[in-house]
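Researcher: Let's try something more involved. This one mixes different molecule types, so please make sure each is placed in the same coordinate frame as the others.
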Amino acid sequence: GDSVTQMEGPVTLSEEAFLTINCTYTATGYPSLFWYVQYPGEGLQLLLKATKADDKGSNKGFEATYRKETTSFHLEKGSVQVSDSAVYFCALQDDKIIFGKGTRLHILP
Amino acid sequence: DAGVIQSPRHEVTEMGQEVTLRCKPISGHNSLFWYRQTMMRGLELLIYFNNNVPIDDSGMPEDRFSAKMPNASFSTLKIQPSEPRDSAVYFCASSFGLAERDPPFFGPGTRLTVL
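Model: All components are placed in one shared frame. Result:
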């Protein structure tokens, strides 16, 4: 069945560092791909999405490119801030949405 | 729009009691999802509805769990009887539709503690 694998956390970085959170997927069809962010005590919020191969989703300085050849959708940001500290979830949607286990990100001032 | 509304936000109950969680999806959304989040298992899809009809309930843990969607603006998730291992945060989410592959919007969650 379909699945999403993302890097284990926690990830700890200093402010202004470059961020990469890896995400790979397996799917029988042609899914849409998403990144969600969850701040403490809140629900998940959609961060960005890509619906077909080579699409690049972007929002709030975060980017991810739908790579069909490597079945990946890695999340990147050039310069992280303390306010980016949260849990990040990679997800795919074919007939239903499947989430990865989440990666906790800590940004140190 | 008020977003997805869930109630209660927190629930503490004793083992064996019935628990009912409630969800009001975003107006106009046709799909509704119930998820459970724990440290051990992460985010699990329990059940989802399309146009008020249950499409896939394969994630429902066992017969103690049941979900209904009597109309387009309301859904419930019931646990009877509750057990300590049911303690988790339960999220409801809604989207325009499965065919459109519209990503779901999540509610704030209900934190359930079963003693």
